[in-house]
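Could you join me in thinking about how sequence relates to backbone shape in a protein? Label the sequence line and the structure token line clearly, so we can match residues to local backbone shapes. Once you have written the record down, we can walk along the chain together.
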Amino acid sequence: MAVKVFASLFIFMTISSHVASDPDPLQDICVADKSSGIKVNGFVCKDEAKVTAADFFFNGLAKAAVVNNSVGSVVTAANVEKIPGLNTLGVSLSRIDYEAGGLNPPHTHPRATEMIFVLSGELDVGFITTANKLISKSIKKGDIFVFPKGLVHFQKNNGNEPASVISAFNSQLPGTQSIAVTLFSASPAVPDNVLTKAFQIDTKEVEKIKSRFAPKS
């Protein structure tokens, strides 16, 4: 079962990387040189003589993360920032761990389609189309669900036990914009009169919400 699932993830990432993803590489490898001050669409290639197996290795998804926050979920990314060898390859993974009742709040990935495989537990998942239609489903261990590129989506653990998923992306750095965090903790702040009109609430409510997303001092 696990072999078939990861084969499906590999096929998904391979096909999607040629359809709508990061630019294809023009050399065998281009390990990210994150120490370079040069800015390009991606990362400058590291001197190949200095490349090692460590540039292509990461064991951070092996164990569940400790969940200790208000939303009840933790995302552990395995992208180019963690694995320099992913630079120009157009793929990455993440692990998401949820406590009972935990939520991965509504968010988008502006640069990637996402495919999740449930390792354990049961989740309610969904995304919203640009026609404002909710596409949702309850999924369990061994199931797969896809969130199209750029669309707002979420996952909610409605079970009494922790849950975990592996996410596959067709980008080395998919990016994440959490809707609530983006709007209520931007710097500089989004003007209150924009938020009051958008959400049809008063200024006191806006300030109350902003205070909940303020950085911990």
